[in-house]
Amino acid sequence: METSQDYYDAIKERFAEARDLRLKYRPQGTAQYTSDLTGALAKYEIDPYADGGADRPPISDTVEVLFIGGGFSALLTAARLRERGVESIRIVERGADVGGTWYWNRYPGAACDVPAYDYLPLLDEMEYVPSRLYAKGPEIFAHCQAIARRYDLYDLAVFRTTVISTVWDKDERLWRIGTDRGDTMKARFVICANGTLSKPKLSKIAGMETFAGHSFHSSRWDYGYTGQDLSGLADKVVGIIGTGASAVQAIPRLAKAAKELYVFQRTPSSIDLRNDRPTDPEWSARLKPGWQAARRMKHLTGREIDAAKKAELAAMSREEKIRKQENDNIDYMMRIHRRIEEIVEDKATAEALKPWYMFMCKRPCFDDEYLPAYNRPSVHLVDTQGKGITEINAQGPVFEGRTYPLDVLIYATGFEVQKTGIYNEIRGRDGREINETYSDGLRTLFGVHTHGYPNLFIMGGYQASFQFNLTFMLQTQGDHIAECIAYAREHGYAEIDVSPESEEWWVQEVIAHRGKTTRNQDCTPGYYNFEGEFNRRQDGNYNGGFSQYYTHLTNARERMERHFTFS
């Protein structure tokens, strides 16, 4: 029996009501968060994983390529540069080791959400096969370290160091890099590889600093307090604010370990099957060299649509196609709802855990232990119904007049999103700071190059393609950047800068592929849509598809002199 359109329209209305509720309670958009973790909030950014040995004399030297950040962006691009004969490569990293996301996020249960055979980069080059379908955090961190050793990236690397200024010297045609350690380094090429989600943020909650118990951010997990096996929580009442990707992985482990656990939810995540499993050794043994590259290219091209399906789509109007996509999306989300009903025993809790928004409005999550955790009598869901926690006192969070006394409070409130520079002030040829340049609207080529900032490359920023398997997109950018640097070196060029014409072409490409539907404003607030804020059509990701983005980068490298100016 075919489902009526009235059914789908009614659910869309529920989605709109949930969105409007969120916007009513927090109309300030991204301003509802702070990443200015200073003063009483400074403790939430302290690195709990760094040991001694921080003191060192300031560095004053010149390298050919300098990476700001030491996560996958830097590692996979540096590997490509090594393959092209670049010897002088420095990584400057705020943490005490490489790894980026996987250095900082060591909360219990941390694992990739994309199959590890696709997510972990350079598996062909490293001759490595992940141990399971969804590799755990420690294995991914170890893979990062192995890449750094394999490509000799530790030799010039500088850790526990934050880049605070990156200024173009037009006379020397070099970047001058200042750090919080008094360094005055120089580099011919600079690659901003600080990650899309790297600076922790907190919700602005009145009274946060008055809480008398223990507290920390999920990306700065305090194992000194919890114990490596979380046994330190056996007699503790634990609270966690947030139900996003980090919380979804940590909550089942906290549920097993804590005396009691209170989960403070504003908006539920969509939770689908994970079905993790160890890697089949027989399958692994059959893999041939180049298997990951072939696998990724197969994903890039996608499945071939048969002739009948193509004809059916061609016969549909634009409105019919959008309606079909929306209805299919709603069918998927209603399956998520049914799964919650089947697993969660308490009906009120099950209802509160149902996400009322289109799939991909917020980051989807995959976990087989999250929903069953709510069947434990020691686990309590505090559903704030879109309001969020707005007050904390000495004992704990306050909601609707009730205080929830806690021993420890964990903030799983996320990170600044795709912020160019974060801790860093980047000034180009005319002395203008890059975020000032972007204030009138983002202007880049592929999200990588910005006119007036020669020899500077940005990874994982806006105007690049959005890809759930982020490392594939980063590898695509890394390959492109390595080719650009190699081209400049081989031709004896001191500078490579995007031409204004090519930058304008890409801005128009981004605009042309954004705003085709009202999805952005229809979605419930989250970091995918700037927390519901209005944004210009050019101030986001390129939505023309990853395959097309890949093709654009490839074509540009075949016509370097057309897209770039060299000197």
**What structural category characterises the helix and strand content?**
alpha/beta
Count of individual helical segments: 20
How many strand elements? 23
Query: What summary fits the major beta sheet?
Result: 7 strands, mixed
Q: What global shape is seen?
A: globular
Overall mean confidence score, pLDDT: 93
What share of residues is helical?
25-40%
Strand content: 15-25%
Rg measurement, Å: 24 Å
Task: Give the end-to-end Cα distance, rounded to a whole number of Å.
Answer: 67 Å
State the low-pLDDT regions, or none.
none
What would you note in describing this structure?
The strands form seven sheets. Strands 2, 3, 4, 5, 6, 20 and 21 form a seven-stranded mixed beta sheet that branches. A five-stranded parallel beta sheet has the order 9-18-10-11-14, covered by helices on one side. The protein is an alpha/beta fold and 567 residues long. The termini are far apart. It is 35% helix and 16% strand. The chain is built from 20 helices and 23 strands.
